[in-house]
């Protein structure tokens, strides 16, 4: 059956089996489906057609489809010829209910190698948030979330193995890092940067954190230089030779200036 209004033509069906999940689209969280069902039961169904392509793959409205199926209700849908993964992701970029991890898994499912690597790291090191892990892979203090969302994130084989090795080290420090008040992600990204960009002793970094974590200043959202200043102080403490001392904050500022 099909209906026409002044804007568009759409179809209605109860043949739920004809709809397919688009490869690369996220799974619908059960809590989201329950919210849609609750809304329909309380205020009724305000007809809002789902969008599919010519292969009946759902581009937009998977949550509504699942809810209507559970309620045994007809599903209104519009066919958008040629729509696919890019349109699906773009439709969701402005939606707050798509987490950064949803984008990572979406691109990974379509075979995008950097995103497969990133998804693997996020799954293995779940105590670290995806943006922090992505930043570490690029050797920077912070990467823009839009780089990940827009599908342009890159990671080489070398990046992947280096990051896994770095996170293994930081994982062993995480108990101490959590005792530093404030934003733990700041400490994690700074430690990773120091390990991979300064040639500092990992053992000494480890001792600087584990022996002095409660003495570090509270970590604010963008307090990278302040944390690196504290790390410099405790790293250099009791070192007698000037040559082996490191000013992490100065090196970071110098690198930022060169890149700028």
Describe this structure in words.
This protein has helices at 30-43, 62-70, 85-93, 100-109, 113-124, 130-138, 145-149, 157-171, 174-177, 184-197, 202-212, 224-236, 248-259; strands spanning 2-4, 9-13, 20-21, 50-52, 57-60, 75-79. With 260 residues, the chain is α/β, with parallel strands linked by helices. The model is unreliable at 1-7 (pLDDT under 50).
Key descriptive features of the protein:
Conserved hypothetical protein from pyrococcus furiosus pfu- 392566-001, ParB domain; 6-stranded mixed β-sheet; disordered N terminus
Number of domains: 2
Question: Main β-sheet: number of strands, strand sense, barrel status?
Answer: 6 strands, mixed
Q: What do the pLDDT scores average to?
A: 83
Q: With helices defined by DSSP (H or I, 4 residues minimum), what is the helix count?
A: 13
In terms of DSSP E residues, the strand content is 5-15%
The coarse silhouette is: elongated
What is the H-and-E element order? Answer: EEEHEEHEHHHHHHHHHHH
Estimate the helix proportion, in percent: 40-55%
């Amino acid at each position: 059956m099909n209906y026409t209004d002044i804007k568009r033509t759409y179809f209605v069906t109860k043949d739920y089996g004809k709809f397919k999940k688009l490869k690369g689209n996220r799974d619908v969280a059960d809590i989201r489906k329950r919210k849609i069902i609750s809304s329909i039961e309380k205020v009724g169904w305000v007809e809002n057609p789902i969008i599919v392509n010519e292969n009946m793959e759902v581009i937009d409205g998977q949550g509504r489809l699942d809810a209507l199926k559970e309620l045994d209700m007809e599903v209104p849908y519009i066919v958008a010829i040629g729509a696919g993964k890019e349109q699906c992701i773009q439709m969701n970029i402005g939606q707050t209910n798509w987490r950064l991890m949803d984008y990572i898994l979406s691109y990974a499912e379509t075979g995008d190698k950097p995103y497969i690597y990133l998804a693997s790291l996020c799954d293995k090191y779940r105590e670290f948030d995806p943006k922090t892990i992505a930043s570490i892979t690029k050797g920077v203090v912070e990467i823009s979330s839009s780089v990940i969302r827009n599908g342009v994130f890159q990671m080489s084989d070398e990046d992947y193995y280096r990051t896994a090795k770095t996170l293994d080290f930081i994982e062993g420090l995480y108990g101490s890092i959590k005792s530093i008040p404030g934003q733990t992600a700041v400490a994690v990204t700074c430690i990773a940067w120091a390990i991979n960009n300064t040639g500092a002793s990992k053992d000494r970094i480890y001792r600087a954190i584990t022996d002095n974590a409660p003495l570090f200043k509270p970590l604010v959202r963008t307090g990278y230089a302040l944390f690196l200043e504290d790390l410099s102080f405790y790293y250099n403490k009791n070192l007698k030779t000037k040559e082996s001392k490191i000013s992490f904050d100065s090196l970071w500022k110098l690198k930022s200036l060169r890149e700028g």
